[in-house]
Amino acid sequence: MKPTTMRFESLDMLRGVALMFIILFHSSIYNYANIDKIDFDNPPIVVVLMSFMALWGGIFIIYSTVVMTHMFLKRMPTFSQKMLIKYSLIAGAIYLFFHYILNILLGRWNTDFVNNQPDMTAIASTLRNMHLTFPHITKYFEGSSLSTIALNLILLSFVLYFLLKNNGIQKTKRNYTILTLSGIIIMLLSFVRVLLYPFFTQAMETNNYVLATFYSFTIANPYPLLPYFAYGIFGVLIGMMLVNNHTNLLKKFILPLGILFIAYGIGGMMQFDKTISTPDYFWYFKTNFELGVFILLLISSVLILEPRKKFMKSMSVITWFSRISLTIYMLETATSELMRIALLGIYPNWNQTINGCLLFGALNIILWIVILSVWKRNSFKYSLEYFWVKFFNRVGKQSTKMDLIL
């Protein structure tokens, strides 16, 4: 199933939905005033489910490598492979830069759930304290979905280069086999992250910041390369099959594989106490489960939505979120904190219940719908995506990132 444009619009739709969930659950979870009263040794299932829904970064990691693979294969007749690697390296470097801006200045909160102590970035803590406040040094050594996207783009661009060189694009069976086995093996063996995590803790305790930086990308919370490099590999595999129009393989092989990951994850999670964002075996099985869910969502979106262009055009609000997703992701904490201040002035107890916090999250989505409905009239000018397109046009790569479906 080949898209009529240079983009899979169905995946853009899925990205928009995912971002709306991120806004909802980030705003809800990190504003719950009584979160310290939850038994985190055995949290309620609703809290565990909310933590799952807040960690949608995995689907963006897969999406980014699907798009990168699509770019590689579609542009190979026009650009050399080395030039395509150059574009991926530049994109990876930009994402890495935004990772630090997000973690230190603009990004989401973290919370010491047991002591109910928020660990906030500069913008959040400044708005709450009403004076300039910078975060604790640990914020410099947290991973993020942006850092993992960056590293996946960089590392997997070289994987693509070696798979596709010497007319390797024709060796689809070999390519699919290598990618499938690599993804499965890395995913299944990613439990070693649980064993390696004390090295990150030790590096932080001894102020070994070089090692701490390395570990922050590879084994630290919340999106370490183990296992999220496997997510990227499956994104490359799905991207190849989509470009090669091998939807039969997506249906007969990748979908069942996703179901197996779900079953493996559920079976494993049932053997351990429920935890949230802890480097343990529950987390290991949870990431297997989430990978399966994301694979099913990606493939189902393409198979079901891609032929239904009229339906997708009718869902233009979701498309707005997708088109400037990076901008929204960078600014969602600031808008949430400003709305928090306003709402506390009107109704001081709104954050005492989970339902009140979920309503607050929904209000954040509505706020962004209003912002985007106004901004789209100017084609989202001056968004990060606007400057992204301008920049890559200057270095010779025509981007479709801002092609709007209105």
From TrEMBL:
Keywords: Membrane, Transmembrane, Transmembrane helix
Organism superkingdom: Bacteria
The keyword Transmembrane helix appears for this protein: yes
Transmembrane segments: 12-33, 45-72, 84-106, 145-164, 176-200, 225-244, 253-272, 284-305, 326-347, 353-375
Identification of the protein by name: Heparan-alpha-glucosaminide N-acetyltransferase catalytic domain-containing protein
Organism encoding this protein: candidate division WWE3 bacterium CG22_combo_CG10-13_8_21_14_all_39_12
Lineage: Bacteria, Katanobacteria
